[in-house]
Amino acid sequence: MSQAQLNSPKSWLVFGFAILAYISAISQRTSFGVAGIQATERFDASAQILATFSVVQLVVYAGAQVPVGLLLDKFGPRILITCGALLMAAGQAFLAISVNVPMGLAGRVMVGMGDAMVFVSVLKLLPLWFSGSRIPVLTQLTGTFGQLGQLISLFPFHMILLGVGWSAAFSIMSGFAFATFITTIAFVRNGKNWNGHGAGEQETGSRISQAWKQPGTRLGFWTHFSTAFMINTFMMTWGYPFLVEGQGIDGAMASGLMAVFVVVAIVLGPILGALTARHASQRSNIALSIVGAILALWAVVLLWPGQAPLWILVLLMVAIAAGGPASVIGFDFARTFNSPRVLGTATGLVNTGGFIGAFVTIYVIGFIMDMLHKANGSVGELYNLPAFRVALSFQFVMALLGMAFMVRERRKARRFLAEQ
Asked: Cα angle at 22 between 48 and 124, to 5 degrees?
């Protein structure tokens, strides 16, 4: 593709419809997070079983990232976005008719598989249609616009869920995913600059090894792990029950608080994109600072005597939400340390970070909640503030682990650059 065709009106058209597919993917991913209380009733589920729904989806998502990266390097983003949209449509349709836990889990598996194909594919499109300093900014904007999907799950989906019921709500989400399947076929293209590299079985291991050996890939993985796992834990499973059952906020107010995530992403995403483009050497410091801020606000809320005041909860929402744009910094590390030949594989490896951290955290929180309930003789409410205080504190363990590895891999990455 000539330089004149890069950054062209067609580039923005392709990018726009790819973003629409990603918005849909985020809405499908987070839809179950606001349906947790209804799912507990529909499937007669404990906290651990409820956590299992999100854990299974995240395990599938994280486990698919490396295969998706390899397929992305071979077949290109258009095919993977198309397949992802179709899988999510099928998964949500199946969830709509599910009446027991195994059926519900099967639906979430399909959603997780489809979701896994979209984000890394949109990132792969950027260097095919844009050039120069636009790419880090557009990388951030991809994450920012994608968060509009949260608004879909928080408001129209949640209203339909409460007003009309489970089957209708998830059927409509399935229809949205199918609509993006059609628009991707119609408008998204890999571009003339695309050249599939092929990835035979003997080459697969070498691609993964080549990408992982780059210290920037490992730094990107731990950056994504540290910044993204808390926002995924909150949005996908435990945020809504914590606000409603733990903090005593009504459902509408809880949805409004969680909508702060989108506002923060829209405001902070472009700022972080510009900062990472201009001050590449400070990328890890920016990410570490944001993780520190999230932990500080969680400490305030969990140690607050009684239910925290609304303004403190708003600050917590802002801090957690900042982890979303900060996690995109991890992909910038992958882009700057890897050749285009293995960029899809490297991006997939980085993208597993925050989701591996999330599924471990979500499951452990559910386990702790059930354990505390049983220790109390299974008397009283399963979800209560003292139990949430203990269970959600596990996030500090995971965050400190991620930050320690970030610092370690940063030293290696800087030494590598100095040698180069």
From this structure: 115
Q: Read off the tokens for 351.
A: 């993208």
Type of residue found at 137 = V
Residue 33: which residues within 8 A CB-CB, separation 6 or more? Answer: 54, 153, 235, 236, 237, 239, 240
Asked if 218 contacts 334 with a C-beta cutoff of 8 angstroms, the reply is no
Q: What is the mean pLDDT of residues 187-198?
A: 78
136 contact partners, CB below 8 Å, separation of at least 6? 273, 276, 277, 332, 335
Whole-number Cα distances in Å, 205 to 67, 84, 187, 219, 333? 11, 24, 33, 20, 21
User: Can you tell me the distance from the alpha carbon of 414 to that of 210, in angstroms, rounded to the nearest whole number?
Assistant: 18
Question: At 157, which amino acid appears?
Answer: F
Query: What is the DSSP-derived secondary structure letter of residue 271?
Result: H
Residue recorded with tokens 């950054």: 7
Average pLDDT over residues 218-238: 94
Distance CA 283, CA 301 (A): 28
> At 205, is the pLDDT very low, low, confident or very high (cuts 50, 70, 90)?
confident
Amino acid letter at 108?
R
- Half-sphere exposure of 358 toward its Cβ, with a 13 Å CA cutoff? 33
Task: Name the amino acid, one letter, at 139.
Answer: T
φ/ψ of 346, rounded to 5, equals -65, -40
- Let me know: does 362 contact 108? Beta carbons within 8 Å: no
Closest CA to 12 of 129, 136, 123: 129
Instruction: Give the span between the Cα atoms of 326 and 338, in whole angstroms.
Output: 20
List Cβ neighbours of 278 (8 Å cut-off, separation of 6 or more). none
Report whether 227 contacts 358 (CB < 8 A). no
At 190 the three-state DSSP class reads coil
Digit-coded pLDDT (tens) for 106-160: 999 999 999 999 998 998 899 889 987 788 888 888 888 888 898 899 889 999 9
Amino acid identity for residue 135 in this structure: I
Residue type, 261: F
Alpha helices in 76-152 (DSSP H): 77-96, 101-116, 119-129, 134-146, 148-152
Identity at 419, one-letter amino acid code: E
